[in-house]
């Protein structure tokens, strides 16, 4: 097979980079750059602003409120709220990505009490000229008087249940139909972007299967009214699509999941609607509509005179900084949590709406319950992902996913490169943010397609996924060998093929998933232990040493040793276990070197320790998990 391009991770200018470049070209940029990233009570917050050195900006000010109202001011005079004069730092810097030299201004907003929403905006001026910060926006609707920014002061943390979760992502249309409904279509009878007939009752009938896999959290694709098979352009935020069932059946599904101690995440799309949404229909035909400000209509003579997501006319973008739009979306989120009983929201296309939008969104959902989870889809580099700390509980870890797929699927990186990347990457994640580890999902190639159908590569990638910090997400069907029939680069719906059932399922793969998930549930150290890379002596296969590696997960009471062979040859390795335990300061007692093979040998075969070392043999493209027992 020709080497595939993992298109989801292809290089492109991220939303934040585009915004920063445009704002600096305009004169003054902020981009929600604050320190600390997630302010707590008693912490003052430093606001950084970046002025184009070619512009005659002589003064900069920040206007802020602490009562939730919109701050107002200009030229250093506040008409609502308070004003701070920013200080010009000495250094200038050239940004190669924006092509501009900038001067940095900073202001410091005083520490606030718990529960305070701080809203602020900024401007710059000279005696005859004036600039608003972030006045232009190439990603979404621009704000003529500059963007309003916000942060919330609190002690919020992700709910504890998330740290013990293993998530199953279900694409509702492609999963299952109930026994008394029309059966799920196949690709032989339906075009890949057509409706295939999956329903909510179909999911209810498969909850036993899902539970037997070890899953304790469901993530459902958008299931409210929409003209598309994927549902990521909602026409109605308050009623289940008739093809999936009814509002009452969704409530029943969530109740049945809760009865099995499963949590349920619903997919929330804030950036855009469908062109069938009632507000868009009315605004598009009537310039004087009550909803005219909900969308960005233009004066140009074009087939579609409005801003839309990715220039797809069936996905008109919402003006999410408009107060009416914000209240509508926040109300929908509350409704999903309170009326349907959902436990959390997966947030689609986070970089679309502003940071201030998500700040108040988080405030809204946490007011419902501190146990509600928010996790965002942020396909950006890590420095931009961490800017959302405090605005949501966590993120889908796409930087790690990209490296994982290149290592195990495409084999363009070595295992050692992956482990080194992981060490650095983990340190970049703020303490207040949680992450989800993704092997594949609905927007990228199925892993098996990427790996040319080689099951052992998927098993190895999954062993890695299930033994890392961060919550694992299993995309429906991957656990039974589901791949795709054509390249998702042509049409990403190919990675949303109908679920395999019965004799179509790869039972060996299914058993492997069940074993790994069971081990993760059985051993807390695999969910919450610290991690450190381990030096491995490769006794027999030294030429492939970059494809053989290990790490240890450990707590004060126990530890797990994970050894990976990403080589296509067998490996026999030696690890100096006594030296390793001393290095990490392990205090598990004299029995701490009693290690048992837990993955390949269900009988928990003990590994002998000789001269402070253990030796282990691994098949090609395989993993072993060794658990200490006192």
From TrEMBL:
Residues 169-520 form the Glycosyl hydrolase family 13 catalytic domain. Pfam families: Alpha-amylase. GO terms for biological process: carbohydrate metabolic process. InterPro entries: GH (IPR017853), GH13_cat_dom (IPR006047), Glyco_hydro_b (IPR013780). This is Alpha-amylase. It comes from Dictyobacter kobayashii.
């Amino acid at each position: 097979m020709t080497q595939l391009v993992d298109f989801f991770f292809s290089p492109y200018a991220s939303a934040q980079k585009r915004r920063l470049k445009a704002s600096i070209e305009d004169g003054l940029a902020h981009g929600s750059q604050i320190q600390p990233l997630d302010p707590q009570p008693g912490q003052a917050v430093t606001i950084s602003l970046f002025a184009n050195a070619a512009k005659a900006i002589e003064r900069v000010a920040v206007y802020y409120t602490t009562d939730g109202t919109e701050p107002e001011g200009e030229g250093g005079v506040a008409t609502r709220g308070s004003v701070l004069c920013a200080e010009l730092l000495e250094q200038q810097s050239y940004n190669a990505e924006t092509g501009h030299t900038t001067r940095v201004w900073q202001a410091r907003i005083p520490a606030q009490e718990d529960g305070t929403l701080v809203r602020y905006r900024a401007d710059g001026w000279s005696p005859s000229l004036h600039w608003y910060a972030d006045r232009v926006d190439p990603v979404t609707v621009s704000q003529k008087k500059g963007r309003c920014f916000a942060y919330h002061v609190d002690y919020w943390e992700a709910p504890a249940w998330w740290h013990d979760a293993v998530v199953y992502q279900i694409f509702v249309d492609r999963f299952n139909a109930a026994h008394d409904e029309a059966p799920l279509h196949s690709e032989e009878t339906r075009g890949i972007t057509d409706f295939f007939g999956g329903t909510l009752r179909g999911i209810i009938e498969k909850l036993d299967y899902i539970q037997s896999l070890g899953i304790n959290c469901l993530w459902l694709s958008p299931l409210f009214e929409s003209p598309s098979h994927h549902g990521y352009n909602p026409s109605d935020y308050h009623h289940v699509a008739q093809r999936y069932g009814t509002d009452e059946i969704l409530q029943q599904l969530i109740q049945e999941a809760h009865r099995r101690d499963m949590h349920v995440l619903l997919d929330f799309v804030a950036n855009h609607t469908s062109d069938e949404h009632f507000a868009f229909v009315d605004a598009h035909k009537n310039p004087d509509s009550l909803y005219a400000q909900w969308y960005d209509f233009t004066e140009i003579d074009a087939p579609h005179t409005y801003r839309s997501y990715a220039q797809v006319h069936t996905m008109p973008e919402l003006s999410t900084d408009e107060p009416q739009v914000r209240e509508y979306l926040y109300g929908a989120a509350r409704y999903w949590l309170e009326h349907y009983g959902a436990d959390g929201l997966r947030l689609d296309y986070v970089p679309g709406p502003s940071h201030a939008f998500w700040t108040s969104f988080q405030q809204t959902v946490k007011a419902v319950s501190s146990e509600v989870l928010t996790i965002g889809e942020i396909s950006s580099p890590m420095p931009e992902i961490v800017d959302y700390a405090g605005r949501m509980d966590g993120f889908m870890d796409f930087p790690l996913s990209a490296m994982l797929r290149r290592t195990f699927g495409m084999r363009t990186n070595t295992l050692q490169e992956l482990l080194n990347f992981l060490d650095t990457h983990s340190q970049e994640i703020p303490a207040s943010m949680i992450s989800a580890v993704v092997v594949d999902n609905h927007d990228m190639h199925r892993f098996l397609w990427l790996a040319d159908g080689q099951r052992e590569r998927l098993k190895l990638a999954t062993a890695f996924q299930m033994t890392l910090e961060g919550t694992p997400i299993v995309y429906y069907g991957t656990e039974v060998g589901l791949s795709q029939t054509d390249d998702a680069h042509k049409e990403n719906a190919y990675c949303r093929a109908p679920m395999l059932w019965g004799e179509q399922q790869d039972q060996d793969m299914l058993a492997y998933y069940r074993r790994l998930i069971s081990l993760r549930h059985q051993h807390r150290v695999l969910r919450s232990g610290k991690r450190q890379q381990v030096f491995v002596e490769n006794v027999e296969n030294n030429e492939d040493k970059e494809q053989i590696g290990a790490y240890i997960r450990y707590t004060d009471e126990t530890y797990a040793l994970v050894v990976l062979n990403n080589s296509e040859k067998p490996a026999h390795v030696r690890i100096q276990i006594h030296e390793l335990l001393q290095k990490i300061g392990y205090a598990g007692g004299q029995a701490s070197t009693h290690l048992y093979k837990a993955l390949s040998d269900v009988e928990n075969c003990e590994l002998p320790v000789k001269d402070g070392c253990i030796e282990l043999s691994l098949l090609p493209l395989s993993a072993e998990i060794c658990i200490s027992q006192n």
